[in-house]
Amino acid sequence: MKEKLSLLLVDDEQNILKSLKRLLIDVDCKVLTAESGEDGLKLLESNNIQVVVSDYRMPGMNGVEFLNKVKEKYPDTIRIVLSGYADAGVIVEAINMGHVYKFIPKPWDDQNLLTTVKDAFERHWLQKENTELYGELSIKYKELQNLTKTLEERVSERTRDIEFKNKALTVAQNILNYLPVGVIGIDSEATVVYMNKSLSEFIDTKRLLLGESAKLGLEDNIFEMMMASLEEQKSFSLIINETQGFGIICSPLPDKSGVMGLLACFDILKYKKTNPYCAKLTGVNDGQ
To answer: Which residues share a beta bridge with 249?
Structure first.
């Protein structure tokens, strides 16, 4: 909703002010009058005025001096000079000092003056809208900057976390690769997802392929034990060769929904005297 419009007329001649008020009677605005620049400034202090029309030649403070003060104190007010001295010097002075919107010569053309006043009100409204929009955009821009900064910090933190986990994963994989035991990892669907280098020293790995079913490359009793360990979500162990102290232990990898897979280690039976999971080969054995 647009603000209530007010117009200030400043002229030291009463008859001029009366003529202007009569001319502007059909303009939807409140018309205030002052006979000097000093009186005009007092009215501006106590009223919300959007447009000022001032005579140029007035005793004391002339029109341009008055409008210059208006510009300093009320920069959003649209300023118009009305003068019978339409020489180039006056126009230049009015523009440079008062930053006037329009210069209207005396005697004025009624229609031209009405159009100028209406355009001045519209200009003020557009300026106000632009200022408000700029303010809103500035706020949104700051909010966007803060959001961008927050996102960048989160991305940076997440990147550091991922980098650390990748390093930790690399270290873990290297440890598993160089362990003196064979390690094989399968997911919940029995697909081979990991094999370390030492695994080939304990079992034939030629038929074991990453991304393929472990059933294709493992002996039946070993595969069945691994499936039982997955299904029951318990650790199982199996002796493959008691004389050589060679066997396997399976450990399910827990997940929120059950298990995400299983890790099986070969050649753990050298510790069978202290390992409660080890048992003699009798098929599938449940470690207690």
So the answer is: 237, 265
Tokens of 7: 């117009």
The two beta strands, 246-255 and 258-266, are antiparallel
CA dihedral 267, 268, 271, 276 (to 10 degrees): -150
Q: Token digits for 252?
A: 């399910």
Looking only at the bridges linking them, the beta strands covering 51-55 and 78-83 are parallel
Q: For the chain, what are the domain ranges?
A: 6-133, 174-286
DSSP state of 185: E
Burial class (CB in 10 A: 0-12, 13-18, 19+), 55: buried
pTM reported for the whole predicted model: 0.51
Fold of the domain spanning 174-286: Beta-Lactamase (3.30.450)
Q: What is the CATH number of domain 6-133?
A: 3.40.50.2300
Q: What angle do CA 89, 34, 71 make, to 5 degrees?
A: 50
Cα separation of the two ends of the chain: 80
Separation CA 92–CA 101 (nearest Å): 12
Give the tens place of pLDDT for each residue, 117-139: 999 999 988 988 888 888 888 89
How far out from the chain centre does Cα 230 lie?
A: 45
Q: How does pLDDT run across 32-42, given as a tens digit for each residue?
A: 999 999 999 99
Closest CA to 65 of 40, 84, 87: 40
Is the bond into 180 cis (omega within 30 degrees of 0)? no
The conformational region for residue 66 under phi > 0 = left, psi -120 to 50 = alpha, else beta, is alpha
Distance CA 99, CA 204 (A): 93
Please answer whether residues 50 and 77 qualify as being in contact, where contact means their C-beta atoms are separated by less than 8 angstroms: yes
